[in-house]
């Protein structure tokens, strides 16, 4: 008889274990970014998004949706479009988090911290934000209803299953990132754009479009923009923010939340900052309001650049793999002088102020590529081993048969084919779509990596020809190659790949791949911001070096708590703006 299914054990309506049947979603492992299956599938989606992005762009359709401007104040949330009543100023706490929706352990660790009534960090008692702003990429690797359920909505609902017993329900606003865009914003709009009727656990979604404006106490504003990767700000969005700008004036202080830190990206891609510069120059600047802070995720670390009257902060530690900080420039010019925009804003210099992890720690972590990439990407290593084995066999086939004429050329065609595949693979790896303008360094590093890969196959061919395997009857040589040469070539090719990434990163090439392949789940963080009654803004950057891996069910509050308490720290001392 078939074994009976074990009954689901729950305490009331709360799960007692990380069981999908009890939780209503499946806790996912971290995305294996170098998996050949994932790489090929994501590549197809990215190509389709690039080719048909304009046709899938749902921002124009949002013109038919309500264009509410939100107001958040202590113990109050409302709609400025329908309510112009004065709301008393006071103290308001706002959280900012970006790049969630990867593996359960890292994502839930951050969601759990965001959900707690208060956090004690280095002597500071920091209450939970009444407002949570999500800075983009709420799901990985591509957007879909099920991915959102398993990688974002489920973990956040488990962290805060019910609204607070006292006081209003905390509110949630979200900016779509490039991963949210891969389905044309379909799943994003269904989840977040519910006109105040949507709920994610104890949080309430408030926005009526994929972008938003929030008036805060004491003349502070948060503006969340939606800019599709490599595209423009659409007309309905410009009209919406023009309405917002009509309420701004001298003395107002603005925080802009774009989906990516284009101020850093513009150092390599001079077009990256154009849309954001246009937005500031044409919408905000004419009002006389000051843009005090630009705040973004997308790069999975914490970094701050400081200017004369503006802060530029990247805070993408919501759960996705760590992105390095040691290659960040010491100074950046924003916008870059070489921008193609005819009427660009005057350029200003911003100095590097802080990063988490520190540059020294990030550099040390980069050397983990030699053991983390092989350990965490077995399928990718298998692909490298297959290419190595096929290349070696092709070389052996060509070298072992001394023949002449057309027959020789036919026999050696597989060898030339494998060399072409190996070299072109290295070439295209060094020139991804995010590389910006192709430069000589991309050619040299890519072709050099491909040549080194072929070099390993040449050494393998020499060793093979000096062993007695070649004289064995077919198919014994092939079987021996699979059993003996294949695993050795996997290791050799994997270590060569790690070495290449370390060298390439020194020249600003494949920096993302160096850390994506390692899948480091530590060094996460978010911002807790206090908008004081005196008009000052104090930013507390909260970091956690290690995320939790083991969880215990709880009788109340969050469904699960870390078995070992999370050790919190400030990523840098609090930043005060006024």
What brief labels describe this structure?
578 residues, 9-stranded mixed β-sheet, 19% strand, globular, membrane, Metallo-depent_PP-like, Metallophosphoesterase, transmembrane helix
Descriptive report:
- The chain has 578 residues and is of the alpha/beta class.
- The protein is 37% helix and 19% strand.
- It has a 10-stranded mixed beta sheet with strand order 4-3-12-13-14-15-17-16-19-18, with no helix packed on it. Strands 5, 8, 9, 10, 11, 20, 21, 24 and 25 form a 9-stranded mixed beta sheet that branches.
- A hairpin with a 5-residue loop joins strand 20 and strand 21.
- It is globular.
- The termini are far apart.
* C-alpha end-to-end distance: 72 Å
Rounded mean pLDDT score: 85
What kind of oligomer do you see? single chain
Count helical runs: 15
Low-pLDDT ranges:
1-11, 402-411
Largest sheet, strands/sense/barrel: 10 strands, mixed
Strand order of the largest sheet: 4-3-12-13-14-15-17-16-19-18
Share in helix: 25-40%
Tell the overall outline: globular
Structure summary, number of beta strands:
25
Explain briefly what this protein structure is.
The protein has helices at 20-23, 36-56, 104-115, 145-159, 186-192, 235-245, 262-265, 274-284, 359-366, 369-376, 378-400, 405-429, 440-465, 476-506, 511-516; strands spanning 10-11, 14-15, 70-73, 76-79, 92-97, 118-121, 124-127, 131-134, 171-174, 199-200, 203-205, 212-216, 220-224, 253-257, 290-296, 302-306, 311-315, 331-334, 348-356, 524-531, 537-544, 551-553, 560-562, 568-570, 575-577. It has 578 residues and is α/β, with parallel strands linked by helices.
């Amino acid at each position: 008889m078939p074994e009976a299914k074990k009954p689901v054990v729950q305490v009331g309506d709360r799960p007692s274990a990380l069981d999908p049947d009890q939780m209503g979603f499946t806790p996912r492992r971290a995305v294996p970014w170098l998996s050949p299956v994932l790489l090929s599938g994501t590549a197809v989606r990215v190509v389709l998004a690039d080719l048909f992005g304009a046709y899938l762009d749902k921002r124009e359709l949002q013109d038919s949706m309500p264009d509410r401007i939100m107001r958040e104040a202590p113990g109050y949330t409302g709609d400025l479009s329908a309510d112009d009543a004065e709301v008393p100023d006071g103290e308001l706490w706002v959280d900012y988090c970006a790049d969630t929706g990867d593996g359960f352990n890292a994502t839930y660790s951050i969601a759990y911290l965001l959900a707690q009534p208060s956090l004690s960090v280095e002597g500071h008692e920091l209450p939970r934000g009444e407002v949570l702003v999500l800075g983009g990429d709420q799901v990985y690797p591509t957007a879909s209803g099920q991915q959102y359920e398993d990688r974002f909505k489920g973990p956040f609902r488990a962290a805060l299953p019910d609204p607070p017993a006292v006081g209003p329900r905390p509110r949630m606003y979200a900016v779509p990132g490039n991963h949210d865009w891969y389905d044309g914003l379909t799943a994003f709009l269904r989840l977040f754009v519910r006109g105040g009727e949507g709920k994610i656990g104890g949080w309430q979604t408030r926005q009526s479009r994929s972008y938003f404006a929030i008036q805060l106490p004491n003349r502070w504003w948060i503006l969340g923009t939606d800019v599709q990767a490599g595209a423009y700000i659409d007309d309905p969005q410009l009209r919406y923010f023009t309405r917002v700008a009509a309420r701004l004036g001298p003395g107002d202080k603005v925080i802009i939340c774009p989906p990516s830190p284009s101020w850093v990206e513009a150092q390599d891609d001079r077009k990256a900052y154009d849309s954001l510069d246009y937005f500031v120059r044409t919408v905000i600047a004419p009002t006389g309001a000051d843009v005090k802070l630009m705040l973004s995720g997308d790069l999975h670390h914490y970094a701050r650049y400081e200017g004369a009257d503006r802060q530029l902060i990247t805070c993408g530690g919501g759960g996705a793999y760590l992105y390095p900080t040691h290659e960040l420039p010491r100074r950046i010019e924003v916008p870059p002088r070489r921008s193609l925009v005819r009427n660009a804003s005057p350029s200003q210099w911003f100095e590097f102020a802080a990063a988490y992890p520190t540059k020294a720690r990030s550099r040390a972590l980069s050397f983990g590529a030699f053991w983390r990439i092989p350990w965490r990407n077995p399928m990718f290593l298998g692909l490298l081993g297959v290419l190595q084995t096929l290349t070696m066999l092709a070389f052996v086939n060509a070298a072992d048969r001394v023949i002449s004429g057309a027959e020789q050329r036919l026999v050696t065609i597989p060898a030339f084919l494998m060399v072409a595949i190996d070299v072109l693979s290295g070439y295209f790896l060094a020139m991804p779509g995010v590389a910006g303008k192709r430069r000589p360094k991309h050619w040299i590093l890519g072709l050099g990596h491909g040549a080194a890969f072929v070099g390993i196959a040449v050494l393998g061919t020499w060793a093979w020809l000096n062993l007695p395997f070649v004289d064995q009857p077919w198919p014994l040589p092939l079987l021996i190659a699979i059993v003996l040469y294949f695993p050795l070539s996997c290791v050799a090719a994997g270590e060569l790949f790690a070495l290449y990434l370390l060298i390439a990163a020194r020249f600003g090439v494949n920096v993302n791949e160096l850390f994506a392949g390692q899948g480091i789940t530590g060094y996460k963080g978010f911002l807790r911001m206090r908008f004081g009654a005196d008009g000052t803004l104090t930013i507390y950057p909260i970091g956690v070096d290690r995320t939790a891996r083991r969880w215990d069910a709880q009788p109340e509050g969050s469904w699960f708590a870390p078995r070992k308490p999370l050790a919190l720290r400030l990523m840098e001392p609090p930043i005060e703006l006024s």
